[in-house]
Amino acid sequence: MKNERTLIVDAYNVIYASDSLKHLMPKNKVRARESLAEKIKAIHSLESVRIMLVFDSSNERVEIEHPFGDRSFEFVFAPKSLTADGVIERILVRMRGGEQITVISNDNLVREATRSNGSVALRPQDLFDWIESSEKRLIELQRNRNQRKNQTLENRIEIDWASDLEGEASD
Q1: Overall average pLDDT of the 150-158 stretch
Q2: Helical packing angle, 29-46 and 124-150, nearest 10°
Q3: How far is 97 from 75, CA to CA, in rounded Å?
Q4: Whose CA, among 94, 133, 169, 170, lies 20 to 30 Å from 36?
């Protein structure tokens, strides 16, 4: 894996830390995953960062999905023989990105493994604050684009077209 900024999210851990998402669990895991992804998409849209949402699953092997069709935004489903925490730890060892990697989790073992790798460990509330900040910035950027789009351009170059035309006529 190339050296790029990466955000790894212990997804179900974050969902259960969110008042707006945890009510969807466990009955509607798909909707909870989609809702979390939609929120994190603001960070992905604003910053050049790879997103990996890691989930526990009952799959036989690791499976990866790209929910928005973008290879830099991934759902990683852990095999049933390994938890999402174990997958995150293995990703950290393989990527060796140090400070280029940020892991979001309340799990103390995941946080310790993250710090041992030289990476940044943040809590879910830090992620929610980052999302909120990114959403505000995206709204501001869109507002600025719309203002520029609606501005009329005026000609500020003074040219005496009549004398230029007279000069051409006499030639």
Answers
A1: 67
A2: 60
A3: 20
A4: 94
Residues 47, 165: Cα–Cα separation, whole Å: 53
168 vs 51, residue with greater confidence: 51
Q: How far apart (Å, rounded) are the C-alpha atoms in residues 76 and 65? A: 7
Q: Which residue has the tokens 């892991």?
A: 103
Average pLDDT over residues 134-138: 93
Locus of tokens 């684009």: 145
pLDDT of residue 123: 98
Predicted TM-score (pTM) of the model is: 0.82
DSSP state of 82: S
Q: What gap in Å lies between CA 124 and CA 19, rounded to an integer?
A: 11
Taking the C-alpha atoms of residue 54 and residue 93, their distance in angstroms, rounded to an integer, is 15
Q: Which of 90, 146, 145, 129 is nearest to 113 (CA)?
A: 90
* SS3 state of residue 142: helix
Residue reference for tokens 């900040």: 133
Residues 47-67 have a mean pLDDT of 95
Residues 131-154, mean pLDDT to the nearest whole number: 82
